């Protein structure tokens, strides 16, 4: 981490002298705080039993060890020539473009960095109701908290990123913060904080910090809070911030991911259930991952139209592929975002350490969705049959409108012409055709073998929908949803009804089999919501949130996948985010390939993962009925 600190020192021009002076000040402030009894309220003594008897430790040890005369004579610790392992670490995990590393004189020493230490801190939290019920006397009130992330090499610059979030959440101004506690992992961390945030240095770590007191890694966050609440006066406000590094234990990877071909409505998969399609994809994903099925601890499967599929599609898939029956399985329905949400659940489960290896899938067989009959007594004269496809998949239940009618509103809102939509659709078909011709789907798509009751087996190894384009007819088709002369959405420039499945194995960093290269790192997710009628533009909101929470810009994203529920979805997405169209859906999208509802969220993630160059970042986004959307940020190892 010291090498990362050196990077920050160089970029912000923070000299060795500045860091040494800061460290000396930290030691002096800590000594003064102990001398003046400021630490008395927060520190409790520890009795230590040894062979020689019991001793009581009631004072910090590190601050008394300083020798100011030797501070400036100390040699730098990290910038003495970077190790090969560090260089490999940089290139393997963080670099999305070629990087030139120049070895310069170092600035970080044992004197101006935090030390290795032992200690513990604890804070008791209680609700307002509990305070009243038990007549408690709180010493501080928690107003809000926030976190932020940046490039791991810039971890020392992360603390300033939380400040705007905290101030915005509370409505406070920076001048209203009476005391700041910033963890002194290195002196350069606090100096960078002061430089970027611009707060009053006299209010930052007024009683010393980790450089002089010590930095027991698991304790430090709680120590900052403990010190802050004990030193603030009544009515004052304080803010504590701490940076942390990153390691493979906390990184979540897609180890492998594949999909079936996407079949047309009532096409090749009309006799193959959604469960069978998902099981086919899952078997291949497991086989490619190098992980055994009996190691998988949980299964999440996105499926929207599960009527007549049987109980819990995810459980059926898990059992079909040999996952232990003791493992849990959950079927997820978030309409078109279902399988991306399944991936998000897996990400959370793995990142928190709850699970180590998880199967994620998304599936749909729209050809097999049944018609519904009401269970109530059928009246004289008969009753209406309900189309399950429409009722549970293609109609907004609150507006009682087809999704295409909602999409027509976005067409008007963004001024997108019928011609633009038709042209986009034609390009989607052409990109899909070229991708298949050039073998770009070879690693992504696995064949499905169909065993009919009679005759020989049939192997489906290629998407069916993209082959149906008759370019000359696209502009002649009548609008499907709005037929008063103002409609623009047709069967050609909207996605179609289809069947297919996708699957992936999600693991924690330390669970990657030896010699294996993960397909992608799952960096972050975001979700958004708004008016149900505006669902087609919700992906824009999700991406804006995702970029904000990861502190990234549009220009840092190498490739984009946006689910083409309708051509207008992608066109509005490109327009609103000001994207380079050549970086969007490079192998075609749902307009050409098809849109099996429960499959699509994971399909675009895997298509993106297979397309990204090493080290690059990519974003996949998808809208779903009800006015919502999801987005995910990937990085190619």
From TrEMBL:
Source species of the chain: Ancylostoma caninum (Dog hookworm)
Thiolase N-terminal domain ranges (all copies): 1-80, 105-128, 252-508
InterPro entries: Thiolase (IPR002155), Thiolase-like (IPR016039), Thiolase_acyl_enz_int_AS (IPR020615), Thiolase_AS (IPR020610), Thiolase_C (IPR020617), Thiolase_CS (IPR020613), Thiolase_N (IPR020616)
Similarity remark: Belongs to the thiolase-like superfamily. Thiolase family.
Coiled coil spans: none
CDD domains for this protein: thiolase (cd00751)
PROSITE patterns according to UniProt: THIOLASE_1, THIOLASE_2, THIOLASE_3
Protein name: Acetyl-CoA C-acetyltransferase
Molecular functions per Gene Ontology: acetyl-CoA C-acetyltransferase activity
Pathway assignment: Lipid metabolism
Top-level lineage group: Eukaryota
One GO cellular component term: mitochondrion
Alphabetized Pfam families for the sequence: Thiolase_C (PF02803), Thiolase_N (PF00108)
Domain Thiolase C-terminal per the UniProt entry, residue ranges: 136-244, 517-635
Keyword annotations from UniProtKB, A to Z: Acyltransferase, Transferase
